[in-house]
Amino acid sequence: MNWIESLQKAIQYIEEHLLENVTIEQIAAQAHISPFYFQRTFTLLTDVTVFEYIRRRRLTLAAHELVQSEQKIIDLAYKYGYDTPESFSKAFRRQHGVAPSEVRKGSTSVKSYNRLAIQVSLKGAEPMDYKIVEQAEFTLVGIKQAYSYADGENLREIPKMWEEAYANGTEDRLLALNNGAIPGLLGVCVDQTEIKGKQMEYWIGTAYHGEIPEGLSSLTIPASKWSVFEVKGPLPESLQNLWKQIVSEWFPSNPYEHAGTPELEVYAGPHQAPQIWIPIK
Hints:
This protein has 281 residues and is of the alpha+beta class. The chain has 2 domains: 3-104, Orthogonal Bundle (Arc Repressor Mutant, subunit A), CATH 1.10.10.60; 130-280, Multidrug-efflux Transporter 1 Regulator Bmrr, Chain A (Alpha-Beta Barrel), CATH 3.20.80.10. Helices cover 43% and strands 20% of the residues. The protein has helices spanning 3-16, 24-31, 35-46, 50-68, 73-79, 85-96, 100-104, 153-167, 170-177, 193-196, 237-253, and strands spanning 130-135, 138-148, 185-191, 199-207, 217-221, 224-230, 263-267, 275-280. Strands 1-6-8-7-3-4-2-5 form an 8-stranded antiparallel β-sheet. A hairpin with a 7-residue loop joins strand 7 and strand 8 (275-280). 27% of the residues are buried.
């Protein structure tokens, strides 16, 4: 099964079980990848989390039923996964900008979030520069935080983590320790699904060999073959766009698969472009 078919099968599964309490594990299994990497890929391509997509689709269908049927609002609230009419009305107003009762009167418009469909489009005219690198196992030292990826907490909190590391001097401390194979600061995503459930660890660290300094933790990055991409343009937009391009264009066009080990964002210095390192097989 190719990459596009796998993703489409997962979307089909979501739509067929839209009113059930499906888990990210069940959805990701349809695409034959880990929950963490499925959620990451889905969010990169759509700019929303899987469960935000489900919420939007449910409230779209709920609005349709309000117009087309005579079902009570309380019954629709339960049908679409809300414990009370109040919580349903609050979520409905947040999405549609109006209360369910106003829609029932037929006097206002609502927003429709349509089912996702994978379309093959002409891309790739703009070249992507990359190189393949073999890197032996190495150790990084740094700080780490655990975040939920199911609700997008990682997307909100990781930028704050970088801001805090800059403000309190952690970045400067790590740069002074850098004596390993890769220069500069590293941002590292580590899948923790099998250990802690819908969680990932994010590290800000640097390649280092020696005794672990007080107040820092260490992480071993296994030996791997890496596809290395250079980020071009102003941050953070260029970084986000490159991630999306890797997922939507590069992987479907090349004979590589993600190796399932941690990815790296490499910040070598103020006068050098950041890089994205993807472990491949």
